[in-house]
Amino acid sequence: MDLESEYNNRARVPGSAEIIAGWAREAEAFRTTWARKTLDLPYGTGPRERLDLFEPDGDGPVAVFIHGGYWQALDKSFASHCARGLLLRGVAVAVPSYDLCPHVPLARIVAQMQAACAVLHRRTGRRLLVAGHSAGGQLAAMLMGTDWQAIDPALPTGLVGAALPISGVFEIEPLLPTTIGRGLNLTAAEARALSPRWQAAAPGDLHCVVGGAESDEFRRQTRDFAAAWGGTAEELPGANHFTVLDPFPDPSHPLVAHAAAMAGRLAPG
């Protein structure tokens, strides 16, 4: 198997750079026009330890949307517009940034996202749906599997009660021999420890999404992880690793409706 071809999505998808540039434009336009927002809310002391919180009219469920970039690129400013669909269905959405590999180890990024979720829970009193794209899908799964009371006994068990990984990477070991894996600086044992596929299934509502036009490996990882954790899996017909995000600004899309229902089923913590 050509693992580089299977996992290097920017090389695999023609026009990927233009799609990502389009995300930046759409996200900036959304941030400018959405009235109820708190930008750059700190969840730590580092310059990238910030999240943007977008709120709908009224008090309702809370979700997190974590950007991708193979833990080595992008930030929250590329993903703001992905909050629109859920917001128009009454769900508040937080969009965090995090530090990047190789400047920090991947385990540090997991800890940062745990800190962001803890801050968000303390602010809202809500248990969370966490959605994440690509690398963000791995982080969403890790958050659902977190022992929150080991971090802070005041936090509720199942603080992240639902996860929606989108084109997630749930087995990191296959990345290690690729150009992507070089920047992660992981041993095989570290990669396995950070792979949700090999961890005990976490309780909660899990729905995994992948594009129908993605590589065989991304589609396999989604199916295998959903089955291992007792969740559901969905392929979006014709979607590649980037266009798989197209539904999220649209409140009428069935996937957004499903995500809103997942968030709505979570009782407050």
Please give a handful of descriptors for the protein shown.
269 residues, alpha/beta, eight-stranded mixed beta sheet
**Residues in β-strands, percent:** 15-25%
Q: Which class of secondary structure composition applies to the elements?
A: alpha/beta
Rg calculated over all Cα atoms? 17 Å
Number of strands: 8
The sequence of SSEs as H and E is HHHEEEHEHEHHEHHEHEH
Tell me about the biggest sheet? 8 strands, mixed
How many alpha or pi helices? 11
Secondary structure: elements and pairs:
Layout: H1 3-7, H2 9-12, H3 16-33, E1 37-42, E2 50-54, E3 62-66, H4 84-87, E4 92-96, H5 106-124, E5 128-133, H6 135-144, H7 148-151, E6 160-166, H8 179-182, H9 188-193, E7 205-211, H10 216-228, E8 232-236, H11 254-264
Parallel strand pairs: 3-4, 3-5, 5-6, 6-7, 7-8
Antiparallel strand pairs: 1-2, 2-4
What is the compact description of this entry?
The mean pLDDT is 97.
Description of the structure:
The protein has 269 residues and is an alpha/beta fold. 36% of the residues lie in helices and 17% in strands. Strands 1-2-4-3-5-6-7-8 form an eight-stranded mixed β-sheet, sandwiched between helices. Strand 1 (37-42) and strand 2 form a beta hairpin. It is globular. The N and C termini lie far apart (45 Å). The model has no long low-confidence stretch (mean pLDDT 97). Residues 64-144 form the Alpha/beta hydrolase fold-3 domain.
